[in-house]
Structure of YD repeat-containing protein:
Amino acid sequence: MEKKLIKRIDGPTPNGGEYAEISFTDREGKPCEEKDAYRFTINEYDKEGTVINSTYGFSNKK
């Protein structure tokens, strides 16, 4: 089974984008699946695929 390291969300985004992609990393900064994530980055894109906003955060997992 292929690991899903980026989650795509289609539809309007809070900042007026066409879609968003969420990428996940573990405590060491390595890409990982959502279930193992410690940090995440949400990038919002316009219809041309240009990033219009980025949000960074941490999981509440211990």
Observations:
- The chain has a mean pLDDT of 93.
- The longest strand covers residues 51-58.
- Residues 6-58 form one domain.
